[in-house]
Design goal:
heterotrimer, A mainly alpha, B mainly alpha, C alpha/beta, A: mainly alpha, MetI-like fold, 2 domains, 13 helices, B: mainly alpha
Chain lengths: 315, 277, 544
């Protein structure tokens, strides 16, 4: 089993490497001449030359890639094109903010949705299950900004319980942070929890249909015992996979939510960079998001290995 | 009431009606809209009146007209994306499943790496370099989405390739094209159709989200996501302007999901959880 | 009804949620220590009745009517908690597939001890001691430590015995055995059968033995009840059913199972010309040496059977012959000429002359094509036939396999198992082959249906001069249709001779085990085997 885990870690690192290559290819190789792609048709020849020099485009691609990657590994992500600031200085605090918001939402969403999903599966076909099915179906169909604006209208404008914009800054206490980020966190939670609930429910249902569950009932075990002792240990692996999958939804949702609430996170940073066609920042943000995502997936796969009963009992 | 030989539930019927309505309105918008696409007929964020059922947008254009043109654009783009994504995904997925070998390994690894970057982030990267023109949007999102269709098609293909009737066809000497189109695809139809509905919803929300961020469909084209962005400031004054296009997005997506959910439940067998004890 | 009746079911009726009647007013009674065999083809409702005697119905099925009286108490009238209390404790279930019935996440001991502990009959250590005792009587290896293993770590036969231990853990009054040996190899089956019989006898447990195999049930049951389409056909003492059946259906079931004793392959179909020749073939799956030096030949008009248990490599041999798995060494000859080893290298003519019929007709034909398309495609593909030519040929073929012509536009989903297999045969015939390889063609079919298919195959061989390579584990089928037989064990032939010679002896030791493991339609056959073994053991001991 340890061998499997090491293999998986190695695969994760390999994936990160491949991802960095992919990002580099997309931003610097694919466009052909990056300068004219970014600056547009109306750019003057001088502007093109300056652009190329700043990005080091006269060097061969392998060198450029290596410079970029080695720099990134040492914490130097380069300098922004538009405002000449060191990217790492802006990126790190924003990354912290985003992780805070995402973590807040995940901590609430995961137990809520997995618990409700298991309950829905146990009560399959009954009213509670059918109701939850319709409600979650509606929830996953709503665009993030729609939910965000609804919540703002109700809780910020009408009831005035929370601020409509999430203003977070250095030196705030933990409590103040929580207060500022509650509304965006609730929005995120609503969206992700619905997905996770549905997927958890179907994972548990498929375990409940197995012959060994039937056997447990035929031995005279109570429903509670069958679910806790027989179903859940086997549903653990698919549920972990479901949670990991939904962390991806979380990353995507964070970007839009940060825009609505004007929250100073990594998502907003990237959106601004894209609007301004700031290639180094785009590369840096893309790499950061991808790293977080690959790390989460690797962690989930390792947990699945640990939870697999067949692998735990190797002679 | 029956559709395709199966009983429709109330929610699925509702969904089907709403979807048909949206599709019809989007198709015939130029003939149905009360005003021209960019005609300014009122003041900023005018209240709803007889002249303008949903009021006016941020520069005085009729909200209803803008919404109709916006639906047309967003639905059209989403359909184009989904169609292209399915074309790419099904072709690569089924070929990988049937041919196997290094073709399969190549595509699977490529898709694995592509899926290691969240789709929104990947889209942002591409749009940041190439700009947000409509062809770029359609191509980018379609290629990104095709990875999911690839995975589904490949999984279906792998399940079906081991069926003896596929082996019988290969033993006969049938070519790859025959095996894929005549033996495998007809048996993969049902899950692919429901997946089309789901992917359409996802792409629809995706393009609306990008437009909301200002990085999707650019003005002067009307687009539902962009309309939410343009009218967002009205919220601060307690006005409902951005809610109308946002509700339109939500309504269409919910309806498609209701129909797809119904389609999926047709094939579902009662699970073990319902045994009689 | 005296107080030694342990189970009495009256007027049992089960209905599906769609409204179909699955079991129609069946009565059943069982004395203490008695074994009742429930016999029937698939769809007869025997499993459903077995589960209903525990007041359990699978999803989609509902117990509509009937009384289930266990030890004097009508358990159907009890509430849910009352019924739960009875299950596992007073009436226990042994499923068909042990691999599916055990939870992969828990050890075998955990699961065997579960029932007595949750019913409050024993504490954990008492339950473990009892479990070890059961493991010993069930002849499991290392009984003291066997329980610490997990389901994926033991073999199929061992798992089935563990399931028997699990069922006996509460010393129930009644055991419901649902096809307990059907999924096992013939040689494993006889061992498990012996152990089950001794277990039932030792603890005086009553048992419902559900199976489709009359010869098997004849060894363990005191009485037999025959079911068909959810209704009872006949019931009686075992010997009475076997030798003196009252109903026509029962008589046919008995006749089919015993037919092997009399029928032989028709000698007149064989000609001297050799159609297929396999010379000293070796094949590997990666590093695993799966086929070890097999030599085989088939004459025109002949049926050669390849017999073996699962894992013997017989299906792999079929893949070698058809070109799906190229051998590492050895020769393949078709009609005297060397055949390319891979499928790709073979031309259309060669592929046409050799056809394959599969075991499970449900997956052998495309469910989304009509019969016309399925049978017509080979005609068009191999002979460049026009539509009308193909149509006429398909009609000829359907008549040949005895399928009604108005089935042309039907899809496989609308056909029965036997009809689907006829379609598979028609598809093979459409190519006008010289050789047909049949991979377990009747194993997935009910006995009466299999009978018809077998007759069809014999007739086709006689009319068309076809050669067959018949791969099977069913020795009865081999007896009746094969001219020569090869016995295969772990990738090699241990015997290859005329069928009579194989079955009459002298035997290779494995052949002997195989032949002697097949239940014969005599109720005292198993006892005879046991007596023989006891004699041999005593003989050995007396010489030591």
């Amino acid at each position: 089993m340890a061998k499997l885990i090491v293999n998986r870690l190695f695969l994760g690192l390999l994936t990160l490497f491949a991802v960095s290559v992919l990002i580099f290819v997309c931003t610097q190789i694919l466009p052909g001449d990056v300068a004219s792609a970014v600056l547009g048709q109306g750019a003057t020849p001088e502007a093109l030359v300056i652009f190329r020099r700043e990005l080091g485009l006269d060097l061969p691609p392998q060198t450029r890639y290596w410079n970029w990657l080695s720099g990134a590994l040492q914490g130097d992500l380069g300098v922004a094109l538009t405002n000449k600031r060191v990217i790492m200085d802006d990126l790190l605090p924003r990354l912290r903010n985003t992780l805070f918001l995402a973590g807040y939402a995940a901590l609430v969403a995961i137990p809520l949705s997995v618990g409700l999903g298991v309950l829905a599966a146990i009560n399959e076909g009954k009213l509670t299950d059918r109701l939850s099915n319709v409600l979650t179906l509606i929830a996953i169909s709503l665009p993030e900004f729609f939910v965000a604006y609804l919540l703002i209208i109700f809780f910020a404008v009408n009831f005035q319980w929370f601020p409509p914009l999430a203003m977070v800054s250095k030196g705030m206490t933990f409590g103040e942070r929580i207060f500022q980020t509650t509304l965006p966190a609730i929005t995120l939670t609503l969206l992700v929890a619905a997905h996770m609930l549905r997927m958890t429910r179907s994972s548990v249902l498929s375990v409940m249909s197995t012959p060994y569950i039937e056997m447990a009932f035929l031995k005279g075990a109570r429903r509670k015992r069958v679910i806790v002792r027989h179903a859940l240990p086997n549903a653990a692996a698919p549920i972990i996979t479901v949670v990991a999958l939904n962390m991806a939804y979380l990353v995507v949702g964070v970007v839009v939510i940060e825009s609505v609430f004007v929250y100073p996170g990594l998502g907003q940073y990237m959106v601004d960079a894209v609007a301004k066609r700031d290639v180094p920042v785009i590369q840096a943000c893309g790499l950061t998001f991808a790293t977080v995502f690959v790390a989460l997936n690797t962690l989930a796969d390792i947990l699945v290995i640990l939870v697999n009963p067949r692998l735990r009992q190797q002679d | 009431m029956k559709l395709f030989g199966h009983r429709l539930t109330a929610s699925a019927a509702f969904g089907a009606v709403v979807v048909s309505l949206f599709m019809a309105i989007s198709l015939f918008t130029p003939w149905l809209a009360p005003y021209a696409e960019s005609a300014s007929v009122g003041g900023t964020w005018d209240e709803p009146s007889v002249k303008m059922i949903f009021g006016a947008d941020q520069i005085g254009r009729d909200m209803l007209t803008r919404m109709m043109y916006g639906s047309r654009m967003t639905i059209g783009v989403a359909l184009a994306i989904t169609a292209l994504s399915f074309l790419i995904g099904i072709l690569t997925g089924l070929v990988s499943a049937v041919v196997g070998g290094w073709v399969d390994i190549f595509f699977t690894r490529l898709v694995d790496v592509m899926l290691s970057i969240p789709s929104l982030i990947f889209a942002l990267i591409i749009l940041g370099v190439f700009g947000s023109s409509i062809p770029v949007l359609i191509l980018t999102i379609a290629v990104l989405d095709s990875t999911r269709v690839f995975r589904l098609s490949r999984a279906l293909g792998m399940n079906l390739t081991v069926m003896e009737y596929v082996e019988a066809a290969r033993l006969r000497g049938e070519g790859l094209w025959w095996v894929i189109t005549r033996e495998i695809l007809p048996n993969a139809r049902a899950p692919l159709v429901s997946e089309f509905g789901l992917r359409f919803c996802f792409n629809f929300l995706f393009i609306a989200g990008l437009s909301f961020l200002g990085l999707g469909i650019q003005p002067p084209y009307a687009d539902l996501g962009g309309m939410v962005r343009e009218n967002a400031a009205a919220i601060n004054f307690g006005m409902m302007a951005p809610i109308y296009p946002a509700t339109a997005i939500a309504l269409l997506t919910v309806s498609v999901n209701l129909v797809v959910d119904w389609m999926l439940s047709i094939d579902a067998r009662p699970s073990g959880a319902q045994a009689e004890l | 009804m005296d107080d030694s009746t342990i189970l009495n079911i009256t007027g049992l009726r089960l209905v599906s949620v769609a409204g179909h009647v699955i079991v129609d007013r069946v009565d059943l009674h069982l004395q203490r220590g008695e074994v009742l065999g429930l016999i029937g083809e698939s769809g007869a409702g025997k499993s459903t009745i077995g589960l209903a005697s525990m007041c359990y119905a699978r999803a989609g099925v509902h117990i509509d009517h009937g009384e289930v009286v266990l030890g004097g108490i009508n358990i159907r009238a009890l509430d849910a908690e009352g019924r739960r209390n009875v299950r596992g404790k007073r009436i226990a279930y042994i499923a068909q597939s042990a691999a599916a019935a055990f939870n992969p996440a828990h050890s075998l001991m955990d699961q065997v001890c579960e029932a007595p502990v949750i019913h409050g009959l024993m504490n954990r250590s008492e339950a473990e001691a009892w479990a070890c005792q059961l493991f010993t009587s069930l002849d499991l290896p290392d009984p003291q430590n066997f329980g610490s293993r997990y389901p994926h770590q033991v073999s199929g036969g061992q798992l089935q015995r563990a399931m028997a231990a699990m069922a006996m853990s509460c010393r129930p009054d009644v055991l419901v055995l649902d096809e307990p040996t059907t999924a096992l190899d013939v040689t494993t089956q006889i061992e498990v059968l012996i152990l089950l019989k001794s277990l039932i006898r030792e603890y005086r447990t009553a048992a419902l033995y559900i199976t489709h195999d009359l010869a098997v049930v004849a060894q363990v049951a005191d009485r037999i009840k025959v079911l068909r389409g959810g209704k009872e056909v006949e019931e009686g003492l075992t010997d009475q059913i076997l030798h003196n059946a009252q109903q026509d259906y029962t008589a046919r079931l008995v006749a089919v199972r015993g037919a092997a004793a009399n029928e032989r392959a028709a000698a007149h179909t064989v000609t001297p010309e050799t159609v297929l020749s396999v010379v000293d073939c070796h094949a590997y799956y990666g590093d695993f040496h799966v086929i070890k030096g097999v030599t085989l030949d088939v004459k025109k008009g002949e049926t050669v059977a390849v017999v073996g248990e699962s894992g013997s490599g017989k299906s792999t041999l079929a893949r070698i012959v058809t070109g799906l798995l190229p051998p590492r060494s050895g020769q393949l000859l078709f009609r005297g000429q060397a055949m390319p080893a891979t499928l790709k290298a073979r031309d259309k003519e060669l592929k046409r002359r050799m056809q394959l019929v599969y075991q499970i007709p449900d997956v052998a034909i495309n469910p989304r094509q009509t019969l016309l398309e399925i049978i017509g495609r080979p005609v068009q593909f191999y002979f460049d036939a026009t539509r009308s030519q193909a149509l006429r040929r398909v009609e000829e073929l359907m008549t040949l396999v005895e399928l009604p012509l108005d089935y042309l536009q039907r899809r496989p989903g609308q056909l029965s198992g036997g009809q689907k297999q006829r379609v598979c045969i028609a598809r093979a015939l459409a190519a006008q082959p010289d050789l047909i390889i049949l991979d377990e063609p009747t194993s997935a079919l009910d006995p009466l249906v299999a009978e018809e298919i077998l007759k069809l195959l014999r007739r086709l061989q006689s009319e068309l001069g076809l050669s067959y390579v018949l791969i099977t584990h069913d020795l009865d089928v081999v007896h009746r249709i094969a001219h020569r037989t090869a016995v295969m064990l772990q990738g090699e032939f241990v015997a290859f001779d005329a069928t009579e010679a194989i079955f009459d002896g002298p035997y290779h030791p494995y052949t002997e085990r195989l032949i002697k493991a097949v239940p014969v339609m005599r109720s005292d056959w198993l006892d005879g085997i046991l007596a023989l073994r006891a004699q041999t053991a005593a003989g050995v001991r007396s010489h030591v």
